[in-house]
């Protein structure tokens, strides 16, 4: 979706909060970084859950409401697309609803086998 929006030069604001254990575990990390450079409407926020101080200078820990609010000024405005392992998708849905996001604005797809 982000690649298509970048290729089409859409003016929709897009923010990707992208959680992985380490940069080495993050598929397409450099691709997303490149897309962010080419699309002024795309904000890429990689978040690493297990990186040490020497190898990662970006966001750390788990995606929570506080992190979301640092990058999304009005959390009730976007449509949220969640994708990943079932437990992660479920936790993100709960976090969004607990933060006050309307459930009608949340779309999700679970992938097994991680």
Oligomer: single chain
Measured between the Cα atoms of the first and last residue, the distance is: 22 Å
Structural class: alpha/beta
The spatial strand order of the largest sheet comes to: 1-2-3
Outline: globular
Helix and strand run: HEHEEHEHE
Q: Helix proportion of residues, in percent?
A: 25-40%
Total number of strands: 5
* CA-based gyration radius: 14 Å
Report the average pLDDT across residues: 92
**Low-confidence parts:** none
InterPro entries: FNR_nucleotide-bd, OxRdtase_FAD/NAD-bd
Protein name: Ferredoxin--NAD(P)(+) reductase CarAd
Keywords: FAD, Flavoprotein
Domain Oxidoreductase FAD/NAD(P)-binding: 5-94
Describe the structure.
By secondary structure, the chain is of the alpha/beta class. The chain has a domain at 76-108. It has helices spanning 2-7, 29-38, 65-71, 86-98; strands at 14-20, 42-48, 59-60, 80-84, 106-110. It has a 3-stranded parallel beta sheet, covered by helices on one side. It has a two-stranded parallel ribbon with strand order 4-5. The two termini are 22 Å apart. This is Ferredoxin--NAD(P)(+) reductase CarAd.
